[in-house]
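Quick one, T. Sequence first:
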Amino acid sequence: MEPYFHLKGSFKTSSPALEARGDIEKFIEEAKSTILQKGVPAGRGAKIIAWEVRDSSIFFDIESDRYLRAHDAFIRLRKPLAGMLGKKYKIGIRGAEVEEFTVKLPSERELSQTKIPYVRGTGFTDGMITLSLELGEAELENKVPDRIISLIEDKIAAQSFGGKAEHWSLLWESPKKEMKFSGDPTVEAEKRGWIKRAAGRGQWIHGAQMTHIFRTFEQIVIDEVIKPLGYVEMIFPKLVPWDVWKHSGHAKGIYPEIYYVSPPKTRDPAFWEDVIDYYKVTLEVPLDLIAQKIDKPLGGMCYAQCPSFWPFLQGKTIADDSFPIKVFDRSGTSHRYESGGIHGMERVDEFHRIELVFIGTPDQVLAHSKQMQECYKHIFNDILDLEWRMAWVTPWFMAQEGMTGLAEKKDVGTIDFEAPLPYRGKEGEWLEFQNLSVNGDKYPKGFNVKLQSGKEVWSGCSGVGLERWASVFFAQKGFEPEDWPLKFRERAGDIPKSIRFM
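Structure tokens:
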């Protein structure tokens, strides 16, 4: 089954066009083999199944397949029709009106979510989702119907993906290792005074001991990944405006997971005096009153570090000799609203990461990904001595972004590095503690980045989550230095003493 489009609409005329009926008919007959066939396979595209000259408008009834959608055909007709009427009859076209617009798209099941902008109603019959659209000329000109259709196709693709967020296949697995610890590392770290729950949700204060371990992990990454692979350090912003997420693609669905940032409507102390006075009198922060005094969110806290780097390259053509680009950031925290998923150190709202971003031609990016995999293997096998595995993860959104073939070849997608947590049971829950992604041309296209030679530009990224590394390491090796692998123990050195409380 193929998509089907059916539009009934009319062009408003500056004066009655009945006298031009003969020329309009001639124009329509010619358009069937010219305007409506441009770039369309023979016998396909849009068909004018009815038309009519009314008092102050010209009505069209158009149906189509996917090759030239009915709304695109309608818009195509406007300018040449206006030219013909204006030149011979001094009649202008003063606007367009959509009377009915129906779209049918093939799907295995009906939509689970039907509240969609400009969609008046939906239905599902005989393997087809039917949409009744309610929009006007401005929406047609701004390509709103195309984005609605893309959105619905995304939802159909997500549903047909088997209800999973991603597909998983094993790439490599380490030998089984002796586990030195069986407790919950978060509970043990709290008991020892290495960490303490902070005042904020999903947030921890990391004491001197845990911070020392974090810095050891960082130094290992610097020595074994960053320096050997030629990375240079940059500082990426941690407050991300909407415009960045529009270009990166995150604006399509990030909303349930970000911490929003709203500025005050004004900095004038007089505007805020009632808030200040309320607190002084009640010692309670008047949240409802504050909500009235802050502006709309200008963006959110850093969700994934790499998007806020890309404006550095946005709209630029990069010299060939600057490729491949390899930069990293470790300048601040990332924030995700984890909802009910918060647990200990490994699943938090505020976390610390080193983000590595690499950019080059497709060959350069794929080769670099392989080099990075080997660096991580060396760390996890030879320094941390973990039991772990690598799995290829193909996110469902790749099908929607035209990357299906690349994903199948394991060119574009994500490698998850996973390790078992012994305290979660005999088999242990496997925690994703590291990732490495080849994102294809997603970011270069989104931010309009080109290469001097004209070759295709790809990028990749890899996030080193310090809380995740610590969770896996302590879950398997425990907290006694004598149980730690010698190479890690040598790098860690002496652990700072805890603060004693009376």
